[in-house]
Amino acid sequence: MWRDGRNNAQLHRGFADSGNWCIRLRKDTEINSSIYLNMTSADYDLLNVEFSYVAKNLKTGMGFVLEGTSNDQDLNGPWIKFEDWTFGVDLRNDVRYPASKHGVIISSYSPSLMIRIRAITVDTIEAVYIDDIEVVAIAF
User: What are the pLDDT digits (tens) for 16-43?
Assistant: First the structure.
């Protein structure tokens, strides 16, 4: 189950690719600007993550990141970056993009893994809207 990180990471009505709701991520405050998924990784080797997103009001250097940790007891990490998306390099404002990170090796995170998608923005008007998140764990 995904859980939000409070005011700067929550369900938002609008900017969804399918349906009416998406996740709005804004203002990088670490814990409060992320959504989290706890999972048992003991029986899996790889992780694939796919979603779509649209950015609003981002500026150079801003974006978002997909991270993971084996510390599922709290939200303090340490967090390892799996992938990042940066304005001006990977994205522009007001354009919907597909995103994916395939083949994340998770067997070293056994027995548990927490992943998060975190905003890297400065202000609450700068936001990324994430929709249609799909997480697939693969065993060999």
Answer: 999 899 999 988 776 777 787 888 767 8
DSSP string of 50-79?
Answer: EEEEEEES--TT-EEEEEEES--SSS----
Structural domains of the chain, count: 1
- Identity of residue 26: R
Strands 21-26 and 9-13: antiparallel
Domain hosting 35: range is: 2-138
Q: What is the pLDDT of residues 71-94, one digit of tens each?
A: 877 778 889 999 999 999 999 999
| Beta strand ranges found along 70-124 (DSSP E) | 80-86, 96-105, 112-120
- d(CA 25, CA 34) in angstroms, rounded, equals 7
What's the CATH number where 28 sits? Answer: 2.60.120.260
Amino acid, res. 7: N
